[in-house]
């Protein structure tokens, strides 16, 4: 998962998403182009919607695969087996889904710039640095 602006710098400090203590460990800016990852205070709250959409898409895909390969019936417990399998799948993939949702959400706001060395980074009007600087004073 790389920076959306230069597609070179890593977005996360640790590549293993299942290291749960460091799942959200990110540098403040891209090491390659200097793009700040947190564009404003509370920027990452929107990733909840992206994560929800990814979870629903994964659930629908697993349901379709289960329906095609095994089938559904009201005569037995196949539906409940799918529910259990789907819940286990979502729990196991949750760290990866959370990281993927951050990447997708940032890609909504920061576009790829092939000439990133000669252009300025994307910033919002009210960035996190000035917010925290004002709180300390």
What is shown here, in short?
With 137 residues, the chain is an all-alpha fold.
Q: Overall pLDDT, averaged?
A: 86
Strand-pairing-aware structural class: mainly alpha
Give the % helix. 40-55%
Summarize the main sheet.
none
SSE ordering: HHH
Cα Rg: 19 Å
Per the principal axes of the C-alpha atoms, what is the gross shape? elongated
> Alpha-carbon distance between the termini?
36 Å
Count all strands and give the number.
0
Determine the strand fraction and express it as a percent band.
under 5%
Question: How many helical stretches?
Answer: 3
Oligomerization: single chain
Low-confidence stretches: none
Count of the domains: 1
Q: What's the arrangement of secondary structure elements?
A:
Layout: H1 47-69, H2 78-109, H3 128-136
Helix pairs in contact: 1-2
Walk me through the structure.
The chain contains three helices and no strands. With 137 residues, the chain is an all-alpha fold. The protein has one domain (20-136). The longest helix is centred in the C-terminal third of the chain and has 32 residues, at 78-109. The radius of gyration is 19 Å and the shape is elongated. The model has no long low-confidence stretch (mean pLDDT 86).
